[in-house]
Every structure is written in structure tokens, then in C-alpha cells.
Amino acid sequence: MKKTIVIKSVDDCIRIDKFLFKYLKNYTRTNIYKMIRKKDITVNNQRIDFDYILRVNDKITYYDFLRTDHKKKVPEFFKAKPELDLIYEDENLVIFEKPLGIPAQQTDEPSQYDHMQNRLVHYLVKSNQYDYLNNQAYLPSIVNRLDTYTTGIMLGAKNLKAQQALNQIIKNRDLKKFYHCLVHGEINPKKATLTAYLTKDPNRSLVSIQKEKTNDNKIIITRYQTLYYFKKQNYTLLDVELITGRTHQIRAHLASINHPVVGDYKYAKKQYQNNQGNFKHQLLHSYKIIFDLANYDQDFILKYLDQNQYQTKSPAWFHSQLHPNPYEEK
Fold first, then answer.
1. Cis status, amide bond into 324, omega within 30 of 0
2. Which domain of life is it from (predicted)?
């Protein structure tokens, strides 16, 4: 039985073998490569190689000898909530706010379906922006990560070109990221740029900070300035710019200078454990991003975002629990 697939914009610029691996889920890779070699798979009625790059409106024709037109399994993203707290959206990306306690992606808990990756896909399906029934090879994806108990800005790509562009921007450090956090103690100096080195321990989901470079660690740069000092609680509210973006960077870096984030039981030393107040999780909130794309070509797919900045609609959730509230005083 012959079948035809018409490539849509969401799958533009994907290699045909990678597209078919996801689209023809009942076929092995060996099956697919054999079908390409034997001309059982063609594009626009022409023979192609396995590394052919698909373009919009290309027509893939193949002989479905496995008859895969059986009833499809309901995707797991339907088990997640379809709502996003939107900050900005266009044809390429979504910028939204992650709430407290929701993982960014699938965790080690197999029954944990309500994470931000699934919420993104469910939202796009519900708003008729992603047609999962056509089993498209590209799945819309989040491109930045926040810890489960860190709140704030996340970005989701709607197509492969946008995802590649966002990954490039983040890798080149051209997405400026700003956080608010509450730390123990009165920090001095009130404004500084910190540089150190970070080593990951994936087996324990921990990182450690070193002053000197080794073969195993990576440089981290964290810039902060004081917003308010709470004398009674001995807490300082900081505005932090994440120059590099490593795992747990802000939490571990500030803890290494003896100013751990309030509520962070993973990196705070024992001497701080009795002064966490009623906070059960780290008080860390990603509140602003700025796209710095001045050095990108005019035909760069996201060039139109150059110098655009996006902020969460309201201050971090923990601001309302601070006394006095520095934002009410202004």
C-alpha cells in the first residue's frame, strides 16, 4: 500500500532518515535504510540518499508493507495541563512562565507526566498549532531548563529552525538571563562579578565549585547586585545575571562564598539550616531575558528579536512573604 507524506514547515530542514525514524515508528532503522536503497522511498518521485534534507512541500512516497494504519496510542502529553502562562508568542517560539514545583521535563518518576515539556506540546495541540495526528518528526521542545522549585521564564521552540537558532543563541551566551534570589547574610561588596569553576557529579545530582581550573571543571561567571537587605532576618535580595549557564550555577556559586540561597537545603551548610524561615525550597526566580543578536546576519531566523527583553508579569512568588516588601516601599 503506497502512502504519501507532505512536509510541513515544522519539519523543514530535517534529514529524511531522522524524519522517518520518528514517523515510521513500527519500522526498524535497517528497514528504512533498505527501503531508501531499493527506491521504496522517494521524494518528489525522485530517488534520494539517506542524508537528503527535507524542505517544505516535499512529497515523500513509500510502500507501507507493515500496514501501520492501526489505531494510534494516545500521547502522554495529554496527561499534562494544556495551559501556559504566556509572556510572548509568535510563529517560531513561545516564552512563558514556569510555576513552582513543576519539572521542566520528564523526571525519574515514570508517572510524572505533568511537566513543562508536555504542557508546551499539549498547549500547541489545543491551540491548533501542532498536528500530532500526522505524527510529524519534529516535536516542539523547551530549550532552557529550570530546576523544579525554581520559577520564571522558559522558552519553547515551535519548529526545528527556531530550536536550532535558540540553541545557538544560548550556546553563544547571547541570551542575557536575570534572576532574583534571596541569600543568607549581608553580602559585601554589594555589587560584583564572580568567577570560579564548576564540576558536575551526575550520580548525586550535585555540583561543586573550585577556584582553579582542572581537566574536569568548567568556568562559571555570575554577576550580582544588592537590591535590599533584611536586617531582622539577615537576608539579602539580589539581582543576578547569569553570564554562563551551568547546572545549579547560581545556587552553588553563591553558597561557595558563604551566601547560600535561602531555602536551598542542597547547597547550604549546616550553619544556615536553622535560619531558612518557613521556606522549603530555594528562593530563586528567573524574571527577565534579553536577546542580544547584534552580531547575527539579517537573514537569521530570530534576528527580529534583537534587543527585545521579556519579563515575568509579577515579582517572584516569595516577594509577598518578605517583610518589609521592598517593592511596596518604592
1. yes
2. Bacteria
Q: What is the mean pLDDT of residues 301-308?
A: 98
β-pairing, 151-157 vs 284-291, is parallel
Mind listing the pLDDT tens digit for each residue in 58-86?
999 987 766 544 445 678 889 899 999 99
- What residues have CB less than 8 Å from 210, skipping those under 6 apart? 196, 197, 198, 199, 217
Sequence-distant (≥ 6) Cβ neighbours of residue 321 within 8 angstroms: 278, 279
Please write the tens of the pLDDT for every residue from 20-30.
888 887 788 88
Residue 10 has pLDDT above 50, yes or no: yes
Confidence (pTM): 0.78
In angstroms, the Cα distances linking 106 to 102, 151, 203, 297, 306 are 10, 17, 17, 35, 32
Go through the domains of the chain in sequence order and give each one's CATH number: 2-63 (3.10.290.10), 78-172 (3.30.2350.10), 175-318 (3.30.2350.10)
Which residues form the catalytic set?
Answer: 147
Q: What are phi and psi of 78, to 5 degrees?
A: -70, -15
110 pLDDT exceeds 70? Answer: no
Are 223 and 274 in contact by the 8 Å Cβ rule? The answer is no
